[in-house]
Hints:
Layout: H1 2-8, H2 15-22, H3 26-34, H4 39-57, H5 64-73, H6 80-89, E1 129-139, E2 142-151, E3 157-163, H7 168-180, E4 188-192, H8 201-209, E5 212-216, H9 226-238, H10 248-263, H11 277-288, H12 303-320, H13 328-336
Parallel strand pairs: 1-4, 4-5
Antiparallel strand pairs: 1-2, 2-3
Amino acid sequence: MRCALIDAEKANYPIMFMCRLLSVPRSTFYAWRTxxxxxxxxxxxxxxxxxxxxxxxxxxxxxCRRVAAALNRAGIACSVGLVADLMRxxxxxxxxxxxxxxxxxxxxxxxxxxxxxxxDFTAAEPGTRLVGxxxxxxxxxxxxxxxxxxDLATRMVVGWQTAEHLRTSLVIDALAMVHQHGxxxxxxxxxxxxGCQYTSAELGRFCARIRVRxxxxxTGMCWDNAAAESFFAALKNEMYHRETFPTRARARFAVAxxxxxxxxxxxxHSTLGYRTPAEALTHHQHRTAPHRSxxxxxxxxxxxxxxxxxxxxxxxxxxxxxxxxxSDAGDGRAAADxxxxxxxxxxxxxxxxxxxxxxxxxxxRRRDEVPHPRAG
Length: 376
């Protein structure tokens, strides 16, 4: 460490003065400068570059555990302790969460809803157990309210909506997004807090129409809806508190970018074994999908595709080889013999109009030209 300090301050102080002050022989200092890096030091130096890269790609939101998980997923073996040591040396600190503030306000005459989750935030299949909540975001134009719906099986934000109001329609729009995108199964549970939007009769009628069972926790108990509260804590800690939003449109764009790009598809989730929600959804789909052999499946061809192929071949052939012109008498003899008359003019599928019967051939056939298979 003393040699490193002398090397760092050699531009400000004489080396002889610092060596005498720190009791370091000059020969020792010069030998330290010319000494080759050991294997351990070289590996730490290389790993430090990977740690900085992962930390920057995660927007400064990853701690030592997520950074170590990301490096191991990329094939770079490292431990959590080593990553924590390197992050401490290079001054890499993940953003820290802020204090919790209660915002749930119960309605004057709320409808009775049971608690069907019971703080069990797990699900065997996607689309069966979902949680939702509302949060507020301050902008230069006023408040912007965000309602989300999270699937407990994949921890993916499958539905979300923003608005300038706190009416029940905000929650209904977020839940309708889940229903329209096919992330909702009949008889699914939708759990939320006991806010007036989630205990309203309007939301109850909408849930009955899409065959969803509503569920609410106790008033003021954030732990009854911990999964939704955890997402809002991550959103505000990793995005909202680090930016300034002059307009509601800018805040809405930032929310969409965080949810759809970073959280659902890039951010490693500790509950999912340090996988992304999109990877967890893909795993469930592959596990439940029937295994089909490519050799046993019959080849299916769309009839419309065959029609388009025939039209394309007819147009291409008529362009390459113009049809022969015939007279009215020739057409009559062909009809009398039971044969269909020859087509005259360009291909009708190319939008051309046939020439009058008996017209002279515009381009006489060349000797090396391939005759039409239907020509006599």
